[in-house]
Structure formats: structure tokens, C-alpha cells
Design brief:
CATH architecture: 3-Layer(aba) Sandwich
Helix content: 40-55%
CATH superfamily: NAD(P)-binding Rossmann-like Domain
CATH topology: Rossmann fold
Strand content: 5-15%
Structural class: alpha/beta
Order of helices and strands: EHEHEHEHEHHEHHHEH
Largest sheet: 7 strands, parallel
CATH class: Alpha Beta
Distance between the termini: 67 Å
Radius of gyration: 19 Å
Length: 270
């Protein structure tokens, strides 16, 4: 029997690699997408070492032609796509809106929002024919509440949350669920390093969380695996926060406003 395939974008990174492991453990063959070949192969090796099935696929998700070619190749070489996890992202530079460049704005939306749409469209076209599918979009608390210093990122994630709702309405009647996860401050290697160095930004984030701890990538992955299963068949069109309660009080905004205002080129001129 051909295994169901799950495509995870940005799967060479901290969250994506954990999602790939969790879905392999749930019985999916995993298509590991990234633009970094070495990172993708490391993620594949982790899945294989755990007894799962995986293959690396290199593609820039902001390129619709590359996305279509990748999805076609996955179905040809690995099997029918049953699940998509839109996780790919690119790092941005902290900036107030008045100091933000056109390039930063455009590049962030290109990957986080355009890329998610291209993938959703390509995968949904195939899932519709089989009348079954699971799509999970990794959004962010920034897309729910906005975020000082990363307005382009928050706007992209807000768009992704809205896209999730629309896709759930359109695809739900055909046995396909579409949901989003909105993490707070995640324990990525970079954030772990900052925390070890006593970063005031990380301290501010933890002060805004009743749980007072960073979100572990494995916790996000476990939620993705739940959404992939039959128990979540009637969970559709929702955005689930995994933030330690940070939505209650986002103290990072006050910290970032002070830091970025002090170095804003635009504010110094008025």
C-alpha cells in the first residue's frame, strides 16, 4: 500500500524538522522541503534514523513554477499528497514601519504569504480529486495582534490566517480541513542562544507569558500531528495559539518600541 505523503515546507529548520519527525511517526512519508540542501538532508536523516520515510525537495516556495514542479514530482516519486504544512519563512530585520524598505516588505510577504498560497493551491487541486486532505499553516501570534518592529511579518501572518479561513470554507465540503497554528516565542536555536546570553528581548517575552517559558518546537509538531489525524476531522478553519498565554500581555512590544524608536532614522529627522 502506498503511504500517504505529507509535504512540510521549511523542514530543515527547528520547527519544520520536528514537524517532519512527528508526521513520520504518525505514519506519513514526508516530503522535506527547504532552500538549504544541507538542512533538508539533515532533517531527512533524522526521520530515517527514527524509522520513518522521507525525501528532500529543494524549491523556493515564493516561485509558483518551482512549487508546481515540486508537487508534481512528489506525487510521482513518493505518492499521493494527503497533507501540507506551510512552515517556510525567511528572517527579517527589525524595523519600524516608517523605516521599512520596499524590499523587506515585499520579500517577507513573498515567502510567508505568496508561498503559502502557491502551495495550498497546488496541493488542494490534488486533494480535491481524492476528497481527503489536511492543510496546516504555521502562522504566528504576530498575525493575530500585530507586532512592533516586524510589521511586514505580522501582516503576512494575518493574511495567512485569513487565507486559512477562506480555504476551510471552500475545501471543507470536500473532506479537506485547513487550520493554522499561531506560536508565540519559540525556542529556536537562535532564541536559546539569546536566552543564554541574558537577552533583554527574551526576558521581556517571558515576562509576558503566564507560563514564563519558550514554546518548544516539538509542542508545535505534536499539535500538527493531532490535526493530521481522524480525531481532528471536525476541527476546521481555526487558528490555535501555542504561546504560553503570551496573548494576554505582549510585553515585547513596549521593549521593541523603545529600542527601535531610539535608532529610527526617520524619527530623528522630525
Amino acid at each position: 500500500m502506498t503511504p500517504r505523503v505529507a509535504l512540510v515546507t521549511g523542514a530543515g529548520g527547528g520547527i519544520g524538522s520536528q514537524v517532519a519527525l512527528a508526521l513520520a511517526g504518525a505514519g506519513f512519508a514526508v516530503a522535506v522541503n527547504d532552500v538549504d540542501a544541507a538542512a533538508a538532508e539533515r532533517s531527512v536523516a533524522q526521520v530515517l534514523a527514527a524509522g520513518g520515510a522521507a525525501r528532500a525537495w529543494l524549491a523556493d516556495v515564493s516561485d509558483s513554477t518551482a512549487v508546481d514542479a515540486m508537487v508534481q514530482g512528489i506525487e510521482r516519486d513518493q505518492g499521493p499528497l494527503a497533507m501540507l504544512v506551510n512552515n517556510a519563512g525567511n528572517p527579517g530585520r527589525f524595523s519600524l514601519l516608517v523605516d521599512m524598505s520596499d524590499e523587506l516588505w515585499a520579500n517577507t510577504l513573498k515567502v510567508h504569504l505568496d508561498g503559502a498560497f502557491f502551495l495550498l493551491r497546488a496541493c488542494a487541486r490534488r486533494m480535491l480529486a481524492r476528497r481527503w486532505g489536511r492543510i496546516v499553516n504555521i502562522a504566528s501570534l504576530a498575525g493575530v495582534h500585530g507586532t512592533v518592529g516586524s510589521g511586514e511579518y505580522g501582516a503576512a501572518k494575518a493574511g495567512l490566517i485569513n487565507l486559512t479561513k477562506t480555504a476551510a470554507k471552500e475545501l471543507g465540503p470536500h473532506g479537506i480541513t485547513v487550520n493554522a497554528i499561531a506560536p508565540g516565542m519559540v525556542a529556536t536555536p537562535v532564541n536559546r542562544e539569546l536566552q543564554a546570553k541574558g537577552s533583554k528581548f527574551i526576558d521581556a517575552a517571558l515576562q509576558g507569558m503566564p507560563a514564563a517559558r519558550l514554546v518548544e518546537p516539538a509542542q508545535i509538531a505534536a499539535l500538527v500531528a493531532f490535526l493530521a489525524g481522524d480525531a481532528a476531522a471536525n476541527v476546521n478553519g481555526v487558528t490555535i495559539p501555542v504561546d504560553g498565554g503570551a496573548a494576554v500581555s505582549m510585553t515585547t512590544d513596549a521593549y521593541m518600541l523603545g529600542q527601535l524608536s531610539a535608532r529610527s532614522a526617520f524619527l530623528k529627522e522630525i
